[in-house]
Specification:
Length: about 100
């Protein structure tokens, strides 16, 4: 299954990895590994995670205060946001299609 990161979700991932790596060497790699594991779960069970919009679902990371927001379409997972849970949600909610 293809995974597509919509801008700015790709930049959000990169910025979070850099932030955690600046906090403690190796922590950014651990964050990236957890996101990668989340993506593997999403690919395996794309309909299993909580819906927050007509087409958008969220996956909550275990160790870090982040969500992976995504849309499942046939053979694609479209990542709309790598969202920090304590930031203002309107930054991410405006990316949720309301079809």
């Amino acid at each position: 299954m293809e995974i597509i990161f919509l801008p700015p979700s790709d930049k959000e991932l990169e910025e979070a990895v850099c932030f955690y790596e600046d906090q403690l060497i190796g922590l950014g790699k651990q964050f990236y590994a957890e996101v990668t594991e989340a993506l593997e779960f999403i690919v395996q069970y794309p309909d299993a995670w909580y819906k927050i919009g007509p087409h958008t679902r969220r996956f909550i990371l275990k160790r870090f205060p982040y969500l992976v927001l995504y849309i499942f379409e046939k053979d694609k997972i479209i990542i709309t946001a790598i969202a920090h849970q304590h930031r203002y949600p309107k930054n991410y909610l405006n990316r949720i299609p309301q079809k």
